[in-house]
Amino acid sequence: MRTLRTVALVVVVLVVACGVAASVGSAQTVARQTATVTANAPIYLGAAVSHTPLRVAAPGTVLKVLQQEDDWLQVEFNDPQWGPRVGWIHRSLVNVNPVEPQPMDLSVREATPAATASPSRPVPEPVRTAPANAPVSRPKDLKIRGYVTSVTSPTEFEIEDYRITRDEAFVLDLQNADPEIRFRLEDIRVGVELEIKGLWYADTGVLKAEAIKVDLEQFKKTDETAVLTRMPERREAIANGSPGLYFANGQRIRLTPQTQVVFALTKREKDLAKKARSKNDPNPAGSEAEFRPLSSLDEVTVGMLMTYEGRRDAADGAIVAERVAFQHNDLEDGEKKLWESLKVELKPLNASVGASGQLKIDRVGKFKTLPDSEVQAYVERIGRSVIPPHQRDLVGTDPTRIPFQFHVVIDKTFNAFATPNGIIVVHSGLFDVLQNEAQLAFILSHEVSHAVQEHGWRQSQHMKVRRGLLQVGAVFAAAYGQYDLANLASMFEAALRNGYSRALENQADRMALEGMLAAGYDLREAPNTWKALTKSMGDSSTNWFWSSHDNNATRRSYLMNELKNNYAGLDYASLTVAADSFESMVAKTKDASSTKRKITVKH
Question: What is the pTM of this model?
Answer without folding.
Answer: 0.68
